[in-house]
Design a protein that fits this description.
Shape: elongated
Order of helices and strands: HHEEEHEE
Number of strands: 5
CATH class of the domain at 89-172: Mainly Beta
Distance between the termini: 115 Å
CATH topology of the domain at 89-172: OB fold (Dihydrolipoamide Acetyltransferase, E2P)
Strand content: 15-25%
CATH architecture of the domain at 89-172: Beta Barrel
Helix content: 10-25%
Length: 175
């Protein structure tokens, strides 16, 4: 068994070891300490008006809103037409075939009782539109159609490509 000699330390080496150990040990207190206030004092401090109090936002001057179909300015606070997303499907909606201001065919929806603000959509030309035109020309009354199709969007306006059209019987129509 091997014996080790006792370690003798001088006063200078002890001071050196103590200095190294104090450098290695982290400080137990942070240099800056957040002040913690009781809840009632914190609330009073937050609610007290001061010099750095927030100011209300100022209104931003904006150009007048434009109607998406005509491009003319509209009066403030009028509801803007809602635009459906490209690719949305419309299924079994009832309405009438009308001509728009530009002479193109539009489908004007009957009210669904929910939003009451369904804007007319342009009808893209296809064989279903031809059938609807012929039915309107040959009818002696205002025709309603039940349509299904896919919505497209062009220059802020919706159009529909109709894939199904049915003329509901007159007995189910309400006047």
């Amino acid at each position: 068994m091997k014996r080790h000699a006792p370690l003798l330390l001088s006063a200078g080496s002890i001071a050196l070891i103590a200095g190294v150990s104090s450098l290695a040990a982290p400080a137990t207190q942070p240099s800056t300490r957040p002040t913690t206030l009781p809840a009632d004092q914190m609330l009073t401090r937050l609610l007290r008006p001061g010099a750095a109090m927030a100011q209300p936002l100022q209104p931003v001057e904006r150009p007048p809103a434009l109607d998406q179909t005509t491009g003319k300015p509209v009066a403030p606070n009028l509801p803007m037409n809602s635009i459906m997303r490209e690719g949305d499907l419309i299924t079994d909606r009832v309405g009438r075939l009308t001509r728009g201001a530009d002479g193109q065919f539009e489908f004007t929806f009957d009210s669904d009782g929910k939003a009451l603000q369904d804007p007319p959509v342009g009808v893209l030309p296809n064989i279903k539109l031809t059938l609807m035109e012929n039915a309107v020309k040959s009818a002696s009354r205002d025709l309603r159609f039940r349509i299904s199709g896919q919505v497209t969007e062009y220059k802020g306006r919706n159009y529909i490509l109709i894939d199904k059209v049915v003329i509901p019987p007159e007995t189910t129509q309400q006047f």
